[in-house]
């Protein structure tokens, strides 16, 4: 009877141990499932964030390409406009040079005719003095000189304008190159 009682106690102890182990195992399994579920949720959120970042990068790449194309077109248009303006200024300078030469020739002819007429008048006993003739010649020369100075000033202005526009174009090209480099760096990042 004692042996039977010991066996019953051992069986009860064994069953209790089995129940305890089963309970612990069930608790561990439940906790592990919860942990895995949280991990899966975290990975799903990270995957969604990654997909969103990929879409944002793709969108940014498209925007950068569009901006690069726009800047390239704007630079080409500016360069074309500058070339047209330079050609216009060069043509204007040539026209003014021709006008100056024509004006010089006309004034020289007028001066020669006037001097000839004055000499003829002096030769025929005219009361016009040589000093007056000299003053008139000086006035004509001064008029020619002032006209030449005005044309030279215009030519200097045209040169300065061409240099300024050239500097503007170089600065614009430098700015566009810098912007393109920044966009490329931003794209790499």
Description of the structure:
The chain is an all-alpha fold and 189 residues long. The chain has one domain (2-188). Helices cover 96% and strands 0% of the residues. It is built from two helices and no strands. The protein has helices spanning 2-123, 130-188. Helix 1 (2-123) runs antiparallel to helix 2. The mean pLDDT is 83.
Short description:
Residues 14-156 form a coiled coil. The chain has one domain (2-188).
> How many separate helices?
2
What is the chain-wise order of helices and strands? HH
- The stretches of 5 or more residues where confidence is low (pLDDT under 50) are none
User: What general form does the structure show?
Assistant: rod-shaped
Tally of structural domains: 1
Determine the strand fraction and express it as a percent band: under 5%
State Rg: 50 Å
Q: Termini distance?
A: 84 Å
Main structural class? mainly alpha
Helix content: over 70%
State mean pLDDT (0 to 100 scale).
Answer: 83
| Main pleated-sheet profile | none
Strand count: 0
Describe the protein's topology.
Layout: H1 2-123, H2 130-188
Descriptive key words:
single chain, about 190 residues, mainly alpha, 2 helices, about 95% helix, rod-shaped, coiled coil
């Amino acid at each position: 009877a004692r042996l039977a009682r010991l066996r019953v106690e051992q069986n009860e102890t064994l069953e209790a141990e089995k129940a305890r182990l089963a309970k612990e195992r069930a608790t561990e399994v439940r906790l592990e499932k919860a942990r895995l579920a949280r991990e899966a949720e975290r990975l799903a959120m990270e995957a969604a964030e990654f997909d969103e970042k990929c879409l944002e990068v793709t969108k940014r790449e498209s925007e950068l390409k569009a901006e690069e194309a726009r800047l390239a077109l704007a630079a080409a248009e500016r360069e074309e406009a500058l070339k047209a303006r330079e050609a216009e200024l060069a043509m204007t300078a040539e026209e003014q040079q021709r006008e100056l030469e024509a004006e010089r020739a006309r004034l020289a002819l007028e001066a020669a005719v006037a001097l000839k007429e004055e000499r003829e008048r002096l030769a025929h006993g005219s009361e016009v003095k040589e000093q007056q003739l000299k003053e008139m010649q000086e006035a004509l020369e001064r008029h020619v000189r002032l006209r030449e100075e005005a044309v030279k000033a215009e030519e200097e202005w045209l040169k300065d304008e061409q240099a300024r526009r050239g500097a503007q174009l170089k600065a614009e090209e430098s700015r566009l190159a810098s912007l393109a480099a920044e966009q490329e760096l931003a794209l790499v990042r």
